[in-house]
Amino acid sequence: VQLVESGGGLVQAGGSLRLSCVVSGTAFSTNSMGWYRQAPGQQRELVAAITSGSDSTNYADSVKGRFSISRDNAKNTMYLQMNSLKPEDTAVYYCNAVFKILGKVLHYWGQGTQVTVSS
């Protein structure tokens, strides 16, 4: 299973970025998926998550109203639209996919994409 993120980069405060995560290498459908981020010296934290049918999402308080998570199961792709970016959003953003196979819960991670927001 491979998760490949893209869309990170350098943006000024107030700007926008759209991250993408493509899942490949498996015939199984993902269960829930999510975006996490890790800033230097900080623990990895959940930014947003979405269920398999996109019927439920949840967000960290710090990004509510600014970020939007979505997924296109036909394309095995998840997105994170980030608006009104702040310098404190600077971090490496990781894609996470959860599979439930034969009673086991398996987590897979992407390699991360850097998001840097300048003030």
State the gist of this model.
The protein is mostly beta strands. It contains no helices and eleven strands.
Provide structural commentary.
By secondary structure, the chain is mainly β. Helix content is 0%, strand content 56%. The chain has strands at 2-6, 9-12, 17-24, 33-38, 45-50, 57-59, 67-72, 77-82, 91-101, 104-109, 113-118. Strands 2, 4, 5, 6, 9, 10 and 11 form a seven-stranded mixed beta sheet that branches. Strands 1-3-8-7 form a four-stranded antiparallel beta sheet, with no helix packed on it. Strand 5 and strand 6 form a beta hairpin. The radius of gyration is 14 Å and the shape is globular. The protein starts with a strand and ends with a strand. The mean pLDDT is 95.
Give me some keywords for this one:
0% helix, 119 residues, mainly beta, seven-stranded mixed β-sheet
Give the end-to-end Cα distance, rounded to a whole number of Å.
37 Å
Low-confidence stretches: none
Number of alpha- plus pi-helical segments: 0
Helix and strand element order? EEEEEEEEEEE
Identify the overall geometry: globular
Total beta strands:
11
Structural class label: mainly beta
Strand content: over 45%
Largest sheet: 7 strands, mixed
Helix content: under 10%
* Average of the residue pLDDT scores: 95
Rg of Cα set: 14 Å
